[in-house]
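@channel anyone free to eyeball this complex?
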Amino acid sequence: MTNPTARYLPAGLPIPVAEPDGLSAPYWEGLRKGKLLVQRCSHCNAWQFGPEWLCHRCHAFDPAWTEVQPCGRIFSWERVWHPSHAALKGHGPYIAVLVELPHAGGIRMVGNLLGDPAQKVTIGADVEGVFEHHPESNPPYALLQWRRRQVSSK
Amino acid sequence: MTARARDERTLRGRVAVIGIGETEYYRHGASPDPEFKLALKAILAACEDAGLDPRDIDGFSSYSDDRSEASRLAAALGTHRLRTATMQWGGGGGGCCAAVANAAAAIVAGLADCVVVFRSLAQGQYGRFGQAAGIHTVSGERSYLMPYGVLAPPQRFAMRVQRYMHEHGVRQDAMCAIALASYHHAQANPRAVMYGRPLDPGKYDASRWIVEPFHLYDCCMENDGAAALVLVSAERASDFRRKPAYLLGAAFGSGHRAAATAHNAPLYATASFDTVAPDVYRMAEIGPSDVGVVQAYENFTGGVVMALAEHGFFRPEDANDFLTFENLIAPSGRLPLNTSGGNLAECYMHGFELVLEAVRQVRGTSTSQARRSDVAMVIGGPMVSPASNLILGSEATL
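replying in thread with the prediction:
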């Protein structure tokens, strides 16, 4: 799912990039291609996010990257009112959610919940990922956002 | 000392706080003095309190990227010799008790004799914690958070508290009670930045949201100032002018993968004391019912709820019943909490003001003295890793 134009938060927030050592480069490159890639150890099958140089469970180095479906459920959330960055002055409130991916070992990731910032948020609600592309940015990047999933469409 | 005692790996009863001191506490950016000068003032005040020649200090201990270098302090104070210089890794205010433990361990191990533990902050000089700096790109853990507007500490911790409230049915009233108790105690404490500025439930409810579930009054202040204490071995404790406060127990750390990025700690809805609380009780050889008064680090009130539950003062599902204003105030609440006003209302000295207040409680010199104050606990830095805690006691508790 891709929306080529919309951005949830105003421009000017820090741009995500991989570390100089490249640890998270596959993740960020994946998002730009509309794919969610996370680490899964090819030795013991443990899932891991964010990326590490070794598997936390069996200590094999360089866990493999694998594509997973960007869908999950809300594990926790917050509605932010106070701007902590110049780009957010006069903007808000906005919602950040912590999404759990049960089909990927329960790894969690933070994103924004698209839609009305005043909406009621329910822990446990199903959400699906939306790739938010920023090709005009320097450097270009993409984010993974979330929206409520309609059960009937699945 | 018997062979058995020598082999026993504990800090219990082996070191004592003999002096405490602090500067005036200022609103953030309002200190007329730079940070290093504030540190010197607090250290000299602690030495004066103890009746100790500052030149006899032979070690320094602080935490969380402290900028006042031990060697520079030793040179400025003219200490005869420097024998230990430790700084606790990471964790923000999670190091406020660990810094004391590191100093105590150095003394017990024979590395030093007289160690100052300190913290000084001048945010006018070095910038505020609560604002995201003007950076263009981010990588590492912050790259999974900041582009989504999860930038400053309140935003990083609110989701953890929200999950805890969801799992255990904790209501906003429980967090409000913590803020009310802190402000109540600050009204008796002339050192407190919020002295003369009381808080009531209506004012709490009407205050703006910073990030749900945190109102303005659920969030710690940011301040300038410095605080210090002096530790010596228990054998020397009676050589000084004040009643000593003995270290009964100290612990720090965090549980399995507590620092897994980003928000992937297996045990997420926790203050990080799941493993640390049992350790401190084991060393102190007491349980929660023996603790008479608690100073609990409040980056945010929600973290206090979690930290107190993890230290066994109540079960999480009983938080709403336990955390009431009446239960949390000195002298005779069930668990007098943050009796100087703490990070919310006395001064945000990165939690170190809480350690000084625990010493005052054991001495009997708090402005809000708890009826049961022979055993005083400090809990540092809920929700960070590593977190830390300590228990102080009077001579009678040894």
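from a first look: The first strand of chain A starts at residue 2 and ends at 3.
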